[in-house]
Amino acid sequence: MLSTVLISACKQNKKNCCSLKEVGTSHSYLYLLFEHPLSRQKRRITNFNKPFRPPKTSIQYNNATATRMRIIQSRTPNTVASTRLLSSTHEPEDTTVNKKTEEGDSVLSAALGQSNAAVAQSLLDTTYKLLRMGRSMDAWDCYKDLTSRNIQKYISRDQYGHLIKSFNHATNHKLGLEYVLTIVEDMKQLGYQTGRKEKMVVLRLLGRNGNIQAMEQIFDDLVNTLPVSITHEITVIKPFNIMLTTYQEQASKIGQQPLADKSMEVFGKLLDLNIKPASSTNRLFIENIRMAGNSVEVVEKVWSWVWGKIGMHLSGKGHELDESLYNDMVIYFTSTGRPEYALEINDIMQKKNIARHVRTMTALIHKVGRMGNLQRSEEIFEELLNMRNLGPNIVTFNALIDVHAHRKPEPDFTGASRIYNMMIEMGFPPDVTTFGTLIDMFAKKGDISMINVLYKDMIRNHDIKPSAYIFSSIIEAFLRAKDHGSAMKVFHLLQDKVPYGVKPNRVTYNILFKELIKAGYVKESLSFLKDMMKNGIKPEPRTFNPLLSYFASNGDSKATFDVATMMNNADVTLDRFAYAILLESYAKNGDMSGAEEIFEMYKHKGPPNIYMYSSLLYVYSRNNELDKVLETYKRMSKGFVKANQYTYGILMHFYSRRKEIAAVEAIMETIRVNNIDPGVTCWTILMQTYFEANRLEDAKNVMNQIIQAGLEPSDHTLGIFMKGCIENGNIELADSVLQETIKNSQETMVNDYELLSNLNFKSETAYSTSLPVTVEDLLEDKKNLSAKKQLSPYLFGTMLDAYIQTSNFSKAKELYKQMQNLSIEMTLPIYTTLMVLCKGESRHDTVEAMWKALHAYNPEQSTKEIIDPELGTIPLPNPISVYDNLLILDDDDNANKPVVRIQSSNFALSIYLDMLQDKNRFNDIQNVWDDLTKEGYKFDESNWNRYITALLIMGDTSKACLLVHDRLLTANGDDKEEIFGPATKRSRDDFYLSNDTHLHYRTCLAFGMALDIRGAENMGELRLRMAVKESIKEFVKTNPS
Known about the structure:
Layout: H1 2-18, H2 28-34, H3 37-46, H4 63-73, H5 79-84, H6 95-132, H7 136-148, H8 157-170, H9 173-189, H10 196-208, H11 212-224, H12 233-249, H13 251-254, H14 256-272, H15 279-291, H16 296-314, H17 323-335, H18 339-351, H19 358-370, H20 374-385, H21 394-405, H22 413-425, H23 432-445, H24 448-461, H25 468-480, H26 484-496, H27 506-518, H28 522-534, H29 541-553, H30 557-569, H31 576-588, H32 592-605, H33 610-622, H34 626-638, H35 645-657, H36 661-673, H37 679-692, H38 696-708, H39 715-727, H40 731-748, H41 775-781, H42 793-805, H43 809-821, H44 828-840, H45 844-855, E1 865-868, E2 872-875, E3 881-882, E4 900-901, H46 906-918, H47 922-935, H48 941-954, H49 957-969, H50 973-980, H51 1001-1010, H52 1021-1038
Antiparallel strand pairs: 1-2, 3-4
Helix pairs in contact: 1-6, 6-7, 8-9, 8-10, 9-10, 10-11, 10-12, 11-12, 12-14, 12-15, 14-15, 14-16, 15-17, 17-18, 17-19, 19-20, 19-21, 20-21, 21-22, 21-23, 22-23, 23-24, 23-25, 25-26, 25-27, 27-28, 27-29, 29-30, 29-31, 30-31, 31-32, 31-33, 32-33, 33-34, 33-35, 35-36, 35-37, 36-37, 37-38, 37-39, ...
């Protein structure tokens, strides 16, 4: 009977494993293994869009299988009941029979156990096969069938590990996580320990599913359960790589700052274990740090972490790190604009003899040089030249050329040429980047002659096709040389003929747009901007920056804001530079609240930089807000924002206006201690401070220091020096400085040139009757052209005013003749100074002609100058225009829109009114006043004072008193400035002097005589003004009409 039972059990097991007819629907995975491929493909197509089918948990059994399972699941000692399940009849109990039955049950249990083990292994093999075929869902059905039979105990610990690994590789990360976690739970129920490999699979799946918190818990468990003796470091490093990879993949979810923090924490734990990171780990770490951005906070945190973690290894303690990490750190800090940190790591690498790569050395050479430390950059280059197994490449030479080309304040033409010649001597052929940098360097100087030489060398000797960048530089060169016609011709040539396959790109448009604005062609530049957009080239923030800077430099905050609105309408996001320019415009306009609002908006974009803080300091210093100046400086220090020469210059200017000379000197000493180049600006402020304190010798010593330092004094510096000499009675020294400046400028001038006006870019006869013009032709025709060093009209204005104030009219006229010969630009200050000159010589007809020409000026009129018998030709200055109506991106053509011109100078009107009063032409004064009032002319304080004085001299005391009473004495706050005109304010006015709108001393004297104020001529200015105000109030009270 036992043999029969065993044979029956074996046959049933074989039937269950092999017979396809008796499998039933619950074993469909077996059918999948043997079905026809065409049937399988049809089923896939049919089921493609069906929703996910949850794994099956129940099975249909036949009688034999059910009987066998009931026997296996029976765990009671009473085996009789279990045996009875095999038979349909019941025999009387017999002791002998019972013994035999117990022996048979034992054998049967062993046989059935072997059968279940075989079934489990069969199902497991089927699961593997399905996974290899890419049928993970069917494989999971098979595994769930195995667990539903409760036979998973026949699967070993190693087989479970392989099962986890197989499901991980064969499924997507979402299903994979569900499957693997279920299998891990099954392992735990069986008492199997989850190993490191399985944990790492779960770690990776959690990360790929974005479950960062759970992933980090698993990671901490892996780190805390490391074996005491580590034999294979690569297996220990693997979870660290998984973490870094996951942070990288989930960067958008984590955020930039947390990405850096978490990556440094994970990498730091690896270093704390004294395990040398693999190259892949180093690479992942550096990639994550770079992905975190280059904000001040991120870079400073990385630097602090470097010294806190890697610094220990850099100093020689602990496990030695791979050289790639050192090199990558140098690249990171140079790329984030912190070469001083890169130099620190470089110095450590030298001390430890850690190999440096060419790329590392090149980055140091470039960024250290661009930082301003040209000497250190050259030293690193020399070091690279002397290395045995290392040397510079073409990129290195290009980097060093670029450093010399961008030296401040002027490019180092000699140094760049020297490096170029060295590169040729060492056998490195120049590439398009080499020529692009050199051409751009000379373009910024406007040296067409050198550009011509380089361009021919590039084309003829090296067969290099010029890039769009090079053409842009050529256009810029013509613009800087004031040859706008040739610049436009190059641009149109690119559009029409596309030489060398180069079309004008955004860079070309940006440069031309920038230079048009710089040359004063604002209206034309706005039309050009619209053409750019019509040609499908989308502007970017840097496109609008020149326009923003143009209005910001004039303190026109409204126009600057209008340009920002244009950017929004053009779908151009305002970048940090745009916000900085907006803040600058409000600062120069003295608008504290507007500046503070822009500053707060900028903070949401990122941490404020030194330029933002400098603008905020400027507006506070301009308004004499000492507490806010100090508070802002403290905020800079807390934010690790280092002050530069411009920041210190603003502080020096602030204390200079407050007459705190010791504070100005202390700031200059701070600049020296901090190894900051003060530049010409700070020296100039110190010199001006000494002049205003009547310390002439100290001021002269400052000028000598500027020259000894190799700095070129700016026009502003020379003007301050000349004005200081004049105010201290040394007009001869001031004149000698001007004449020396003129002499130096003439040595750099070159022959003038003519425009190629006969060129026709749209000629249809090109190549048939004539050759078209090329870029080479334009350069050849301009080979003797260089940009002139333009002499500033400001210098001449200072000397003209000095001669006029001392009534030395002959010297003034002689200087003006010299200006004409030098083609010095006519500016409004020069023009009004000439009006004062003519008035001083009682040449009233010329004064009147100059006022009328200035007031009636129209850019379209034919008469743009007047002729004076003494002075000769007096050209009219270019009027200041308002472009508010053009700062709109619409479909209208800006060319047809009028430019609104700012009214003629209030100062010029005051000169004209003085002249009319000197000639006793009081009726003309009234007529001029009435006409200007009808035009809506905005009179200033000086105009009102002259008009009121004229009324008093004419005897119209009542009208004069009523005007002062209504417009000045009884007006409130801002209304006073609005109706009586703004007071004249200058940047160097004493903070403690009142700038309120008031009556001038000359006007008060006229009131004293008209109102018969006793002793008026002997009163001081303030006392007389108070007496006049009281008399006016009394007069109006007694004469209300």
